[in-house]
């Protein structure tokens, strides 16, 4: 996957570029991928202008995910002539930072801008920290990444991603069927609620008539890990001769963990939520056809669970993935897809809410949109305002000359 820096912004697409993109994709396919609407309204932009607030990190360890989220939402706008439901849209971006305080500051600034809705949010800490501010403001937030299991009882917060227990739960059922009951699974993750949620999901599905005999190992949550950060904990775990490794890392942490796992002599399968090999991580693990790490990955396997893969064969994904590749010269990730879907469901809700919707009317309409024809496959919001959706098993394989995440089969429908 190409680096996110230097990509052409969809915000810079002019009207002619948008029309060229529509022509290249085909209007019939676009309608199937994005839902139906009033063509004349789309062309003329007869609705009143609206503002949408986008909360993403512009720096730090989560910047790459924030860029993907921005790309996904902007792609939807570019394909619709910078409109949502016939309304010209101004996308106002605010820095989420890494704490509850910085997240609340972003929300406060966007509310002063008079936004109709909010979207984005990468960090679970930020999402938890802004909960009360969003609920009190009564402005809907379509979160496109962060979704901690502790976020309960919300009215104005909807999420187009997943609950963090779900990737572990999807893999837990798969591993319970695949592995012998006596198998030892070494579990790793960063300190914090994210890895705790993922491992809790694994336990929930795996421990049906059996037990996970090993205690999880939580490592330092360093966004720029050294080449030895994980070596000690890995060495200690390998002394017990595990049959498999389950881990929850992403980005630079994922790359260093896998490299150090192999360097310490592990020769067995790796299972993880799809974040382990999503985005640029797999590119950084691919050391070429004659490389040692590629041979180890091919010999022993990395399998991941995720709600999306760029190679899914459905009409909505063919349209989305093709447009994303043409615009950004890279394959889309689950982060970009969830943000694209946030724009899609907002489009549906505003249509239902009427010509001059208020934030409260849009929020009410979000509960009525029904099934969403998404690049991930059809899904719908459940009672907790998160998607009821399919989870896929992906295996790292050679696709052409590069290592790629290839969908093997469906794992479960959760939510």
UniProtKB/TrEMBL annotation:
UniProt keyword Mitochondrion, yes or no: no
UniProt KW Signal keyword: yes
InterPro entries: BCAA_transport, Leu-bd, Peripla_BP_I
Residue span, Leucine-binding protein domain: 49-400
Keyword terms of this UniProt record: Signal
Similarity annotation: Belongs to the leucine-binding protein family.
PANTHER family, per the entry: LEUCINE-SPECIFIC-BINDING PROTEIN, PERIPLASMIC BINDING PROTEIN OF ABC TRANSPORTER FOR NATURAL AMINO ACIDS
Designated name of the protein: Amino acid/amide ABC transporter substrate-binding protein, HAAT family
Species per Swiss-Prot/TrEMBL record: Micromonospora marina
Lineage of origin: Bacteria, Bacillati, Actinomycetota, Actinomycetes, Micromonosporales
């Amino acid at each position: 996957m190409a680096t996110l820096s230097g990509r052409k912004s969809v915000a810079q697409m002019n009207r002619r570029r948008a029309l060229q993109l529509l022509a290249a994709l085909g209007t019939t396919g676009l309608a199937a991928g994005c839902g139906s609407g009033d063509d004349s309204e789309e062309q003329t932009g007869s609705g009143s202008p609206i503002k949408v607030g986008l909360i993403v990190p512009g720096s730090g360890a989560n910047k790459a995910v924030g860029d993907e989220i921005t790309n996904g939402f902007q792609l939807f706008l570019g394909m619709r002539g910078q409109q949502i439901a016939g309304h010209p849209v101004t996308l106002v971006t605010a820095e989420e930072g890494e704490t509850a305080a910085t997240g609340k500051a972003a929300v406060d600034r966007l509310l002063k801008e008079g936004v109709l809705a909010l979207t984005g949010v990468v960090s679970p800490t930020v999402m938890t920290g802004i909960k009360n501010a969003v609920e009190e403001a009564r402005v809907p937030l379509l979160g496109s990444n962060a979704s901690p299991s502790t976020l309960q009882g919300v009215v104005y917060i909807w999420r187009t991603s997943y609950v963090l227990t779900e990737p572990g739960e999807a893999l837990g059922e798969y591993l319970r069927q695949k592995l012998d009951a006596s198998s030892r699974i070494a579990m790793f993750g960063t300190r914090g609620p994210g890895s705790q949620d993922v491992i809790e999901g694994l336990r929930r599905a795996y421990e049906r008539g059996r037990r996970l005999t090993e205690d999880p190992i939580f490592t330092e949550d360093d966004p720029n890990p050294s080449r030895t950060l994980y070596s000690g904990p890995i060495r200690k775990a390998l002394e017990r001769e595990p049959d498999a490794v389950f881990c929850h890392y992403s980005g630079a942490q994922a790359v260093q963990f896998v490299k150090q796992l192999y360097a310490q002599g592990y020769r067995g399968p790796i299972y993880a939520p799809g974040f382990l090999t999503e985005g640029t991580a797999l590119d950084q693990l691919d050391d070429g056809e004659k490389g040692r790490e590629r041979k180890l990955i091919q010999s022993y396997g990395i399998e991941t669970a995720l709600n999306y893969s760029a190679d899914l064969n459905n009409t909505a994904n063919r349209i989305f993935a093709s447009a994303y590749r043409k615009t950004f010269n890279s394959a889309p990730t689950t982060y970009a897809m969830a943000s694209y879907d946030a724009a899609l469901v907002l489009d549906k809700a505003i249509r239902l809410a009427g010509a001059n919707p208020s934030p409260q009317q849009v929020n009410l309409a979000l509960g009525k949109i029904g099934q969403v024809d998404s690049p991930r496959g059809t899904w719908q919001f459940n009672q907790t305002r998160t998607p009821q959706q399919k989870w896929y098993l992906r295996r790292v394989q050679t696709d052409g000359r590069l290592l790629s995440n290839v969908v093997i089969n469906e794992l479960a429908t959760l939510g």
